[in-house]
Amino acid sequence: MGYIKTILTHAAAVHGAIVCAEALDHARIALRRLGLVGKGNERDRRPATTEIDRILAALENNPRQIIPVGRIVRFAIATALRQEEIARIRWEDYDPVGKMLLIRDRKDPRRKTGNHQRIPLLSVSGYDPCALIEEQRDAPERSLDRIFPYNGRSVGTAFRRVCKEMRIVDLHFHDLRHEATSRLFEAGFTIEQVALVTGHRDWKMLRRYTHLRPERLHDIARRHAARAV
Fold it and tell me: Listing from the earlier edge strand, what are the strands of the sheet with 100-103?
């Protein structure tokens, strides 16, 4: 319904077509009351710690796995980067002293290019992103330009294959970004601070990632108590 209304209003505004979008508004109200349309379900899949451990063990014990997908999985959880962003980062974009990383052309629905962002490399997720990058310096397939010189689709394919072998259901590589973002919140960072890592410009969109595990509230409470002391 939204797409149809967009087309009609575009036709009226740009092409001068005489259309009435009011009928669509009435139809949407009626369909919503009948329970036939509604908001889509937001994906909130977080892998369990045991699932991540099983995936990493399977990847790193597979001698046929040429791409270090296990290392990339850890890096994704440590940085909240998308798989295509990981595949693009270059050595020149890495600042080991300041522990910063430049991400070029981050995904933005309003702009397609020029969305460069410097993000801090934080080791609060259980993995140290700087250490993972340094491991790549000694990798046999080390590239002189890209840190992870692999095809993002190949990484996603390997991830799906190991999930299928481990019988881990409904887990996508992109869910690691969700996991990473949630871990940042569990570490005690605010929405505006997490946005400096994830690149979200709309903080409302970031709220859907705040699926904290209830048991982690004890850790946050202990940190608050320590600060008070």
Answer: 94-95, 100-103, 117-120
Strand partners, 140: none
**What distance in Å separates the CA atoms of residue 62 and residue 121, rounded to the nearest whole number?**
29
- The reply to whether 11 and 73 lie within a common domain is no
The reply to whether 210 falls in a domain is yes
What is the reported pLDDT for 106? 82
Asked if 224 is an active-site residue, the reply is: no
Q: Is the pTM of this model over 0.85?
A: no
54, 74, 106, 177: which one is catalytic? 177
- Which residues form the domain of 114? 49-228
Question: Mean pLDDT in the chain?
Answer: 86
Q: Say if 92 falls within a structural domain.
A: yes
Q: Would residue 41 count as lying in a domain?
A: no
Structurally, how many domains does the chain consist of? 2
What is the model's pLDDT at position 210? 64
Does the active-site annotation cover 200?
Answer: yes
95 and 9 within one domain = no
Cα–Cα distances in angstroms (integers) from residue 115 to residues 78, 148, 168, 177, 201, in the given order:
21, 20, 35, 19, 11
Which residue is catalytic, options 54, 82, 106, 183? 82
Among the residue ranges 44-53, 62-71, 207-216, the one predicted with the least confidence is: 207-216
Catalytic annotation on 209? Answer: yes
Q: Which of 5, 28, 172, 174 is catalytic?
A: 174
pLDDT score recorded for residue 216: 63
The one catalytic residue in 71, 106, 178, 200 is: 200
CATH number at residue 108: 1.10.443.10
